[in-house]
Each structure stands twice: as structure tokens, then as C-alpha cells.
Amino acid sequence: MRKKITIPDILQMKQDKQRITMMTAYDYPFARLVDSGGVDAILVGDSLGVVFSGHDNTLRVTMDEMIYHTRAVARAKPRALLVADMPYMSYHVSTEEALRNCGRMLQEGGAQAVKIEGGMNMCHVIRAVTSIDIPVMGHIGLTPQSIHRMGGYKVQGRKEQAERIMDDALAVQNAGAFAIVLEGIPAVLAAEITTELSIPTIGIGAGPDCDGQVLVIHDILGLCEKYSPKFVKRYAELAPVITDAVTSYVEEVRSGAFPTKEHSFT
Question: What integer pLDDT is reported at residue 16 of this predicted model?
Fold first, then answer.
């Protein structure tokens, strides 16, 4: 039986210069498949609002939805570390509410850690949550919950913004996060942050020099046709395979070729 991956393991991987692999999963079947593929961490991302529920952004995702999906992933009993996104407005109103919601994600959802978007502006929350032994993964750079301020999904940290992103990274580390996602920032800046920090960096659209990488499972399988970011590599094109399978089923039912005696009870 493979050893369960823990937060100390993730921290040690940076020290050992071993690349960390993280991928999203939103349900039991995909959690089993992703875990079987050998990833180190599974992220139940609020990106499910876009790729699973069909919204235009992540802002409509609720705590109840995140707990539901996290619970489904947890039932797969993954070897990988299970991290769950804290959705929009679940940690913004007050520290007390943030603590309660993060606690729910572990208690009701079965997560082993939570991910919180924001830099210096959210350090008080990260500090409070980690102080009661709830592990936090940070997330800076292009933070999808801030798309209205950013004017859309745009690269962050260019030119005069670079110093602010570095300050965000240091602040999140100092607040107690065990790792930090760097999204949509220049590769050179991501490399500098990775060298500067003692905690692991997980890149998504942040170049090759982060301590690890994360991608959305639907993106790498060609199942999300709403958009295709530059940083995504498609490792399979399953959409036409699935469509062809459904088309064959429809044709066989209409022609009477399915079901046969093989698929019937006596």
C-alpha cells in the first residue's frame, strides 16, 4: 500500500529538489483516476464553477458546493494530499467566519488543507487559520476571484507589479502558509520567488522553475472547450472520443443493435 502524502512530505520535496505534481479533481471517479496517475496533491478547485458547472467565472461557487465536491473526492481515499479551495466570500467577511468555513472544509469535506487566494491583503486570515492548525496553501498573482479588479484573466507581475507580487509571496509565507500557488506571472519572476521562499511554489502559467505544477484535469484531457490558456498542455483529446461513443450508442439503440441477448437477463 502506497504511503499517504502529508504536508511535511510536500515541504521535504522542495528541500530534496523533487518536483511536486498537483491536479484538480471534482468527483469520485476522477479522484481515483488522478490519484492512480501518481500526483502528489489533488486540488478540489473552485475552477469547478467554470469547467464543471458552466459558469463564466469562479465567483458563483458556494461553500456548500465546495464541501459537496470535496467530500466526493475524499471518498476515493486518495494517497495524494487533498487540498480544497475556499470559495469567494467564504473567508472575506470576518476572521471568525473564515475560521468556521475552513474548519467545515476539513470536518465536513474531508480536506487535509485549504487554499486561500490573496497576498498581503489576506495575511491576517492565513495567520488566523494556520494558528488553529488548519494548513493553508496560498495563491497569488492572477487570482481568479479578483478578475473584476484585474479586468479579466490577465498576466500579473509585469514591470512595476513585480515587487508587489514578491511582497505578497513573502507575506503569505510569513503568515504561515505551507505552500503557495503562483498563477499567471512571468517565468522570471516566478523563478525569483521560488528561490527566495523556503516553502514550495506551485506554478500554473508561471514557467518551469517553480517547485511544482498544477493543471485542471478537464483542460489536459481536452474536455473544456470554453477556453484554452497558453499555459495548458493537452495530453489527450477525449471530447471526440466521448462524442463518438455516444453517437454509436444512439445509432445502435435506434437500429435495434443494442441491447442484445448478451446485455439481457433470462
Answer: 98
